[in-house]
Amino acid sequence: MRGTPLARCAVRIALAAAVAASVPAEAKRIVVMPGAGTPLQDAIEAAEPGDALVLSSGAYPEAVVVDRALRLTTASAASVTVGPAVDAPVTLRIAADDVSLRAGKGAHVTVVGGGPVILIEHARGVRLRDITADGGVEGLEVRDATRVTIRDCAMSGSSTGVHLAAIAPHARVVVNGGFAFGSVSGAFLEAIAPGATLGRSGVVVKRAFVTGGCGGVSIRLVDADGVAIRRNRIAGSIGCIQSVDLDSASDRNLITQNEIGPFPVDAGSGNCWRNNVGVALPTTCP
User: Fold this and answer.
1) Is residue 6 part of a domain?
2) Does the residue 29 lie in any domain?
């Protein structure tokens, strides 16, 4: 038996409402301008997941927390500085999944701070590209995160350029290209993928120039398993910078096709040194 016209109309309205509710809102493009207060953090808090924030040229001297899935970029040829913020332990904290931050065409983005300048923690699917971190205890820290890509970024002026810590097996954290300098360590990897097999932890450092300061180490691994370090320039110099240091709990790491300075130390077991260029390098590969 067919319903009345009024009933049929009510059904159609209910179906239309259900379809509309299932379609995500269109992502917005939000232009952010520097100014008094915290304009960048205000824009983040006003945005919806999936929105794009476009930063205009200028200084944003504030501490920023990205707590939702957003795309942050800049206007073309913009020069953007984020931080430093007074008494902020972290300048830029990324605490949400599916966040991207990259400089626009011909643009420069510099994040400045005193603690970890950029911290990616408990997040998945984060992408950074063409970003500079300057100063601080650590230029960039990635902790307990998965599917993170750091591409063509520069870390300088810190005690540690890049710090990767507490990364689970197969989490896939990749540093690809760029420059990492730290007065103590250029790159410090600790508590990485316990028990991972040779080069299969999902943590990769490749195609980067990595250097420590005089008296420091360019790449240091502590309790790190299965890391792949390949096609990098790893600085070292006699009486000043140690190129690579693997502690006794760092096992089954793959160090291949790098240009390595003196004097690397390998106190771990099952590590593979293969096809590297340098003087007095280990050549063992199980």
Assistant:
1) no
2) no
Residue 13 included in any domain: no
Spatial distance between the Cα atoms of 72 and 142, rounded to a whole number of angstroms: 18
Give me the number of domains the chain comprises. 1
Q: Report the predicted TM-score, pTM, of the whole model to 2 decimal places.
A: 0.90
Query: pLDDT-based confidence at 21, cuts 50/70/90?
Result: very low
Which CATH number is 54's domain given?
A: 2.160.20.10
Measured between alpha carbons, how far is residue 78 from residues 34, 102, 109 in Å? 12, 12, 8
Give the model's confidence band at 25: pLDDT under 50 very low, under 70 low, under 90 confident, else very high: low
Q: What is the pLDDT of residue 4?
A: 64
